[in-house]
Design goal:
Layout lengths: L5 E2 L2 H5 L7 E4 L24 H84 L2 H30 L16 H6 L6 H9 L2 H4 L1 H16 L7 H10 L22 H4 L11 E4 L1 H10 L3 H17 L1 H5 L3
Length: 323
């Protein structure tokens, strides 16, 4: 990856598109002779920088808004699923009604045809009897009965033939919900940051697997409670560990928190020119978008981020218990 060039002015920053990461160099960086030693403040004292507090409040507000958006999305998905289930039930009921109607129609035709045929047979017998008795009036009545019954037989037979020629309606097989291509699903989600889309594309099981998607939701909630900002490297590092994509990094330096002294930045935090870089703050595209939405410049956001990180390092217990 190419070395980021340190930017000092708003004009330099404005020349970099919002979708690119930037390195902001703030004035007053620490030197070799001035190591960053931060003592843990005493409990009960107002030890949070106003800028850091404002940034924290704004970040919490943004996270709360995102959670509300997620809840609305889940509610919309549930409504869509319920509407689909109701529509499927309505289709099944309509198909059952059609089947019952067709069965009833068939029964009526079959019964009517049998009755008409029996009536023709009875009329023919009456005609034979009247002929043997020489009763011409009865013979005329019997012939009329035969004609009427024969007409009924023809009608019922035509109806039976029409039913037989109808295409059979096969039971509708309900299709399972179409599985959307994970890449398409991710790209079409307007609530995701670009970095989140790239992460999900690299881990499509979080989209296609219901269980893994539920695990991701739990991981997101825990990351938010830890104060991690969506789209940042720390956020993704936590998700990778939580989801099992990366093994937890061993940290032998963990202690009881009684001492919290940061190492001089000049030893392990240097820019490409070898100068101490503790006053150099990297802003991701997502953080730049957040700054824009807050109505602050990237430099002001970088200052607030620097102050917030210093306050969090000074009292990690206080920030780990937030949320």
């Amino acid at each position: 990856m190419a070395q980021l060039r340190a930017l000092k002015t708003e004009e330099e920053i404005a020349a970099i598109p919002l979708d690119q990461e930037i390195l902001v160099e703030l004035p007053g960086g620490m030197t070799e002779e001035e190591p960053a030693v931060v003592e843990k403040p005493e409990k009960g004292k107002a030890d949070i920088d106003p800028g850091a507090k404002t940034l924290q409040e704004q970040l919490e507000a943004a996270q709360a808004a995102q959670r509300a958006s997620d809840e609305r999305q889940r509610a919309a998905d549930e409504r869509a699923a319920k509407a689909e289930r109701d529509a499927a039930q309505a289709r099944r009921e309509a198909e059952e009604a059609v089947k019952r109607s067709a069965a009833l129609e068939g029964d009526v035709i079959t019964g009517g045809l049998a009755a008409a045929q029996a009536e023709v047979a009875a009329a023919k017998l009456a005609l034979q009897t009247a002929g043997e008795a020489g009763d011409y009036k009865a013979m005329g009545d019997a012939q009329e009965r035969i004609a009427r019954a024969s007409a009924k037989v023809l009608n019922y037979e035509a109806g039976a033939a029409e039913i037989a020629e109808r295409p059979k309606v096969e039971p509708r097989q309900e299709q399972s919900r179409q599985v959307i291509d994970p890449i398409q699903a991710v790209d079409s989600n307007p609530n995701l940051f670009p970095a989140e889309k790239e992460w999900l594309k690299a881990h499509p099981d979080c989209v296609t697997d219901t269980r893994r998607n539920a695990e991701l939701g739990v991981g997101y909630e825990r990351a938010v409670k830890k104060g991690l900002v969506r789209g940042t490297p720390d956020y993704f590092a936590y998700l990778n560990e939580f989801m099992g994509y990366e093994k937890p990094a061993s940290n032998d330096s963990d202690n009881d928190g009684s001492l919290n002294v940061s190492a001089p930045p000049s030893r392990n935090e240097r820019g490409g020119d070898g100068r101490p870089s503790s006053n150099r703050i990297v802003l991701s595209p997502e953080e730049r978008e957040i700054a824009k939405s807050m109505g602050v410049s990237d430099i002001e956001y970088a200052k607030s981020k620097q102050a917030f990180e210093a306050a969090r390092k000074a009292d990690p217990e206080k920030y780990s218990s937030r949320g």
